[in-house]
Amino acid sequence: MTSPTASRPSLVPTRADLADAGYLVLLFSVALVGFSTSYTGWSFLWTGLAGLGLGLLVGHVANVLRQPLITVIALTVAVFFLLGGAVVMRERAVAGFLPGPDALGGLARSSVDSWKQLLTTLPPVDSGALLIIPYILGLLCGAGGFTLARRVRVSAAPVVAPALVMIAVILLGTTTPVLPTVLGGLFAAITLGWISVRARRRRRQLRDGARRATRVMSAAALVGAIAAITVLAGPVLPGAGGDRTVLREYITPPFDLNAYASPLVGFRKYTKDANQLHDQTLFTVTGLPEGGLVRIATLDDYTGTVWGAGGGSAETVPGQPKYGFQRVGSRIPSAASGAKSTVEVEIGAAYATADDVNAWLPTPGEPTAIRFAGDTAAGHADSFRYNLATTSGIVADRLRTGDKYTVDTIVDTVEVPTDPQPFGRPALEQSAYQFVSAKTGTWAGGATDLGGKLKAVAGYLRANGAYSDGGPGETEYLPGHSVGRLTSFLNAQRPVGDDEQYAAVFALVANQLGMPARVVLGAKPGAGGVVRGEHVQVWVELHLTDGRWARVMNTEFMPDRSKKPDKVPPQQFENTEASIVPPPNTVHPPSSLTDASRVDPNVGRSASAKDGDGWEIPGYLLTILTWAGPPIALVALVCTVIIGGKALRRRRRRRLGEPATRVASGWQEVMDRARDLGTAVPVGLTRPEQATVLGDASVLRLARAADATVFGPIDPNDAAATRFWASVDEARKQLGAGVGRLRRLKAALNLSTLRVRGS
């Protein structure tokens, strides 16, 4: 008599268990190395391996205890939450490893948001909450891959798990592949070795009568696996050609620039006559090289009403991916070359209370790293977005008095060459700058080349224009830079305005001439690095053919501020230009400094921004889809794979082999259906004995027919096999007719009949 302890399943892994686990570790590690350009350091690899180990443990325990798939999924989810805090959120876990409300909530949120955050963060990202991605990939690969390895007969089946990890790493990674030849070849070699080991193991377990069909299926599986590996590794092997496809190229960073007014509209509050911020300290910089400038905001989109910050999708250098405002890690990519400096910035009360600029982060040069300090550091770091194309940043929770941060930067001053060539075509719509074309031709004089025309226009504005910030006796010179205001500026007997109008016009003229240009609001610090309103100025940047932006200071296209307009009606239009009529303006020019700061930057935007208005998905439904969509999709995918696998097995049994083999396979299909429905049918019984266990007369007749066909003196023909399979289909229906829908669903997803017998 067998003792109770002898029949207990052993959790000690077998040689086959260890072999499959080892191959999974190797393939997962090779696939995950592709994240080395996405993360800082190698903590992502150790985190992923920790998740893989936990997943392997879940798969092994469930396999030894012969638990159904639903139990494997439940255990995986439980391990994710119970141990996730210790792996990726130790700062939130109780005592650094125990699950608490804060850690559990963080895991739940990060499991949904982390994918989007990774794709909208400039790589490489810091170690932190985003490490949950390799943790999830490892956990799923370990549990799923080991379950497939120990329960599914097909030799290549478990390769699906690490292959999916490789696909995920490629899609979530960067456009720069990591050792493509080495990793692609290594992944293929390990995969083929694993399939070969599993195929030999499988052949030893099969009976002699089934060897032929099994060899055919194994060969087909091997060919399919090689094809899959070729598809996966091919794009990263030498000679593949073309750019690498990653999701971040197609994802628009979820950042709404429409929430921020154009800071250029409120420029006059920095001027002397406005008597607002002219003598107020905005911020203080320490460590900036002599003559260095500080960028506040880059404005690259003209709507007809204002110069504002667009999507920032301009390419920084040829061939590089397009970026908008994104999260950044500890390092910010930069192609600049020049002196490196570390600059500290402290925000003053005047800047913090100016609503049109306090979201913009003043930065010198081209930053390579930004570190916030103080009580607001965590909030600022979380809400900070940086645009690599415009080298400007926004802090969504807005800067406050006393905020401090450190900027590692490269001070790279790009001068306009003698013969500047543009970087492609201007990004602005032609209609945005068409109204300046008449004056451009006049002011350019006899210049024939692009550089000469730009210099001629700048020289004309500087020599013939006058400066006014709308002070006493000059209130007719309004702020703003809408089409209406700039048309008045252009058609007056002499141009009159301040930095706002001169920079806005010169940038539009440059675009009209074919040179991409943008407007920058910035400052040149005074003594001691103090930046007051008087130090704020506006300049223009030109996009040169090498991908860099060359700075044109306002002194090039604007007269000295001491050059005042004549005391005559300054806005009298010249008759020679009477044909120039400004297009209708949807917004009246601001009539005061207060109105200027409140101009809505969204008014006057192209109609295409509103074409999509209409029925929208309700917010509550979007929330439900965001949280419930991914797990539902995962469960649906797993269910589809299981049901599809069984359908493929049934099709193979019905069509492959000699008629006698197909009849025997038909009986096996009936037995598998019974076992899926929960009936315990012993393996070592004859067909009639197995039918007796089921207690169904029709199944008993089918068993006798199978024995007569397989063991009879006359070999059956195809028609006999077809008739037998018709009876098989009827028997399967009868077995399921006596149970409820829930039990039939569980039977369809039952993995017990997909396991390799004896494993």
UniProtKB/TrEMBL annotation:
Keyword Membrane: yes
Protein-glutamine gamma-glutamyltransferase TgpA N-terminal domain sequence ranges: 26-411
Protein source organism: Actinokineospora cianjurensis
Record bears the keyword Zinc-finger: no
Domain of life: Bacteria
Positions of the Transglutaminase-like domain: 445-552
Keyword annotations of the record: Membrane, Transmembrane, Transmembrane helix
Annotated region (Disordered), positions in chain: 559-610
Protein name, UniProt field: Transglutaminase superfamily protein
Transmembrane segments: 21-38, 44-62, 69-89, 128-149, 156-172, 178-195, 216-237, 620-645
